[in-house]
């Protein structure tokens, strides 16, 4: 009773993650990208290792957390899309090492991808929902939002800035892992940037500290800490299988009740620390 027969232990889930969620970015070795010169265009593979990392979600609940100092104490800090630090340093910190951006950021001019300081002097990782069957030709012709033209431009204009595109196989592998650990049928849409980022960081951090992904006692329907827009779906999910991602992250984590409640923080071991 209670325990479901099909549910894996924490260790088994971590092991599945380590074995099936190796980071993969577009390297131009496949068509149509090889023909388009992506082999020369893509930067050298990401391989720096960090000891401790922070993943800072954009949830409204991080407001009034005073977590900024703790977040900045990590060796690397991951942020999402257009989430700012300026004016929110006390709660979210001021250090950014990597930013995951969905293709709307590249395609939609309101985000000023080319000129905004949010996207300068950091590593960028972009993604777009490709078809589940990973038909790269179809994806290139019909991305959800056109990220390829802005990517090519940006790589040519700022060749020194590390800028990657997630390989769709990484994204859909993660979806498969969420589904394989969930009783219900989840929606056939990619995981949220938050989940992609958490698992990406497990690839090159010994310890991953995730803030306000699993909601703290400050849980609110305020969608983002940086704008006054209220929608509970931001925290629980509509398009993305967010709720199921969060259940999985919580099951994989080793966090005290206190860290969860007060900080909305869970800690995950990096792949290098998982023994299978
Ligand atoms: O909102 P978004 O995500 O940029 O948030 C980044 C990640 O933080 C986690 N989050 C956010 C808010 C909240 N209340 N609770 C949370 O747990 C999630 O893990 C989320 O992924 C995205 O995933 O890329 C998303 O992007 C926005 C939007 O495109 C960008 O902010 C750019 O404006 C999407 N919103 C819309 O398309 C309207 C959102 O669905 C997902």
Descriptors for this entry?
glycoprotein, Beta-galactoside alpha-2,6-sialyltransferase 2, 276 residues, 7-stranded mixed β-sheet, glycosyltransferase, alpha/beta, signal-anchor, 33% helix, two-stranded antiparallel ribbon, sialyltransferase cstii, chain A, binds cytidine-5'-monophosphate-5-N-acetylneuraminic acid, 12 helices
Concise synopsis of the structure shown:
GO terms for molecular function: beta-galactoside alpha-2,6-sialyltransferase activity. The protein has 276 residues and is α/β, with parallel strands linked by helices.
How is the topology of this model organized?
Elements: H1 10-20, H2 38-41, E1 50-56, H3 68-72, E2 76-80, H4 89-92, E3 98-102, H5 103-107, E4 123-127, H6 136-141, H7 148-157, E5 163-165, H8 168-180, H9 193-204, E6 205-211, E7 222-224, E8 227-230, H10 233-236, H11 242-252, H12 257-263, E9 265-269
Parallel strand pairs: 1-2, 1-6, 2-3, 3-4, 4-5
Antiparallel strand pairs: 6-9, 7-8
Cytidine-5'-monophosphate-5-N-acetylneuraminic acid is lined by residues 57-60, 80-82, 102, 104-105, 192-194, 213, 223-224, 234-235, 239.
**Which class of secondary structure composition applies to the elements?**
alpha/beta
Low-confidence stretches: none
Tell me the number of structural domains.
1
First-last Cα distance: 28 Å
Which ions and ligands are bound to the chains?
cytidine-5'-monophosphate-5-N-acetylneuraminic acid
Q: Strand share of the residues?
A: 15-25%
CATH fold description? sialyltransferase cstii, chain A
- The CATH first-level class comes to Alpha Beta
Count, helices:
12
**Assigned CATH superfamily:** Glycosyl transferase family 29
């Amino acid at each position: 009773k209670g325990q479901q027969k099909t549910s894996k232990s924490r260790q088994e889930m971590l092991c599945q993650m380590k074995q099936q969620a190796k980071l993969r970015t577009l390297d131009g070795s496949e068509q149509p990208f090889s023909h388009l010169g992506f082999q020369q265009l893509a930067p050298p593979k990401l391989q720096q290792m960090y000891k401790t990392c922070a993943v800072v979600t954009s949830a409204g609940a991080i407001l009034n957390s005073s977590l900024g100092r703790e977040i900045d104490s990590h060796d690397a800090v991951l942020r999402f899309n257009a989430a700012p630090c300026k004016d929110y340093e006390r709660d979210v910190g001021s250090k950014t090492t990597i930013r995951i951006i969905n293709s709307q950021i590249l395609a939609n001019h309101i985000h000023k991808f080319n000129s905004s300081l949010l996207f300068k002097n950091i590593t960028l990782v972009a993604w777009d929902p490709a078809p589940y069957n990973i038909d790269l030709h179809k994806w290139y012709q019909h991305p959800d939002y056109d990220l390829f033209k802005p990517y090519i431009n940006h790589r040519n204009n700022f060749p020194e800035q590390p800028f990657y595109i997630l390989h769709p196989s990484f994204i859909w592998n993660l979806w498969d892992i969420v589904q394989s650990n969930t009783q219900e049928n989840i929606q056939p849409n990619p995981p949220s940037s938050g989940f992609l980022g958490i698992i990406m960081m497990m690839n090159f951090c010994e310890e991953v500290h995730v803030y306000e992904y699993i909601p703290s006692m400050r849980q609110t329907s305020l969608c983002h800490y940086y704008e006054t827009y209220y929608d509970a779906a931001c925290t629980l999910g509509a398009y993305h299988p967010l709720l199921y991602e969060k259940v999985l992250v919580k099951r994989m984590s080793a966090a005290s009740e206190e860290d969860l409640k007060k900080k909305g923080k869970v800690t995950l071991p990096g792949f290098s620390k998982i023994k299978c």
